[in-house]
Amino acid sequence: MDLLTLSQSYDEKKVSPVEIVQQTLNKIQEENPACNAFITVCEDEALTAARQAEKEIMAGQKRGPLHGVPIALKDLIFTKNIRTTMGSKVYQNFVPDLDATVVQKCLEAGAILIGKTNTHEFAYGPIGDRSYFGPSRNPYDLEKITGGSSGGSGAAMAANLAYAALGTDTGGSIRIPASACGIVGMKPTFGLVSKYGVFDLAYTLDHVGPMTKTVKDNAALLNLLVGHDEKDPYSFAKASEDYSRLIGESVRGRVIGLPSFFFQNIEEEVRKAVDRVIDVYRSLGAEIREVAVKGIDEIAEGQRITIQAEAYAVHEKTMRDHADDLDPEVRERLVMSKEVRGYEYVQVQQRRKHLIDQFNESFQDVDVLLTPTLPIIPTNINQREVLIGNHAEGVRQALLRLTSPTNFTGNPGLSIPCGFSHGGLPIGFQLIGKHRDEAQLYQFGFVYEQATSMNIDAAGNNAGK
Questions:
Q1: Residue 387 backbone phi and psi in degrees, to 5
Q2: 173 an active-site residue?
């Protein structure tokens, strides 16, 4: 069941939270050793919470769609009295004394924390195979990457080990594993969801967002997460909004933009899958236009300078005191990050608003942008170079290429499954919107999901409507 179907089953008294939590824990015990989605499983806490949720729901005191639902949290999100490791030896025994704001919101809604999911160490990598606790493994092929850094959350959802998960996204770390693991992942507008109590990677690039089975589930979870938080200096105040309000509305006559930058140097199987997506939208009456995104190369460079400078600022003390305890690849990336000059960082931030405004000019004549989420099919664990046509590219660079620009600009992005490679690995496409336009992304995502019924065979063909 997806999240909302489970919630409806609770309403109808078909199942109980205790039954669902116990089943989920049993499945984690059976399958987590293979896919390594979880670092910590909260068995006792989950069962205690399930018994309480069952009493409340049976008494007619249901708090909302998340009440009694087992969810997973990326192990970068602080949980009071529950170990939070950041995927690092340095923090292997760290137990926070507070809950992150997003955790407070989930618990107040009655959600049940089933466990903390694996992450690329310190979230500083899009691959997901550099954690002190071992690599996350793709449930579709255990020798392949989940993508990162929220790879454990992606694996947990793909393996049906949770009904929803939270991830973080600094260069694509929700959308990358969403695409690689065949689930729905949203990076909201920067500042929409509080980052308080979430371990920093880059102060002005980090986002927290939902990872789910379906578009409707995703909107329901985002509804819960948003809200101004004075404890997060980047959080902005806004009126409350129902992000599912446009779900079910037609996209006939709406305009989808295809930005040329995002279709360069992509694998042929990805191109064919996204071409089929475009055909579905045409069949639904949407107009498709090619658009140029101004300043995209400067945006990409600005993202690189910003993440490196801010990541080293976060980890300067860690590098001074614990460098030998870090994964060698993560340590080397931090060493390289130290090379960014202060004036380079300042110059980028001075240009940032102009570049964001330029990017948003892309929406003058279109409603949303549509791109592949990833230019490649998930690669082997520990593979560090990939051949796209005749062009060799680093796996890290390839994974980040189509997702990271909107971390710099702060625009929302939604990754949606759109089929499988010939080898049976998931492929996703990305919808990008104007700032604070998440509801429209869900509208466009849902009509695609409904039109294809997600009934897509391993060759990537729509098997039925």
A1: -100, 120
A2: yes
